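If I may wish for something, please walk me through the protein I am sending here so I can picture the backbone:
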Amino acid sequence: MGLEDQARSFAAQTSVLLNKTVADGIRISSITTPAGYTVMGCGVTSKAPNPKPFVLGVSGKRCVWLYLQHSYDWDPEQVHLTMTRSTLSLYTSEEMADDQLVLGIDYIRNPANQYPGCHLHVSGSRDDLDLIYLGEDRDSRKLRDLHLPVGGRRFRPTLEDLIEFVVTEEMATPRDNWRDVLDEHRELWDAIQVKAAVRRHQESAAESLAAQGWTVSPPPDR
């Protein structure tokens, strides 16, 4: 399956997850940009590759918006879809002003700076941060400027975690069976991540399987 086909399949799964839990009629699409990478989000087109935020909640008052953007490319073997960048941000308004951020989860597979590839941003007021900030490239620092580490490439926070957050914190009204849908999609995501981890740590996976009674043989070239 080609990169675009894999991306479209994952976008369709994401749409199902959202519409069966905390969204109503949302369509997540994927497009390939002229630069050759794939972007996924709500309302993306080849001429307008920037996704649009969408409101969460299927009934009652709806006052939290989700901005979702994923970028994909091939893995090093040119076989599997690999996420290169991701943003999952919650806002209290469709305008997405800085002070309307509830939280944002950012992921960059190969960061070009010193910050952790997967990190969390939260908005709030902490005047004392200026007292402990040692940087020289700006005069002050806001709470939202901090890059709070939340895991590495493999087992980072997911859309499923964010959906659970907005439901359990009573920010959005879900569908009745949202928990079952969430568990099902988490199983799919976990399986994908485990397979990827095994490809990168084959000896460790073989050792673990052998310890459980499996018969494991290395390929001829090992």
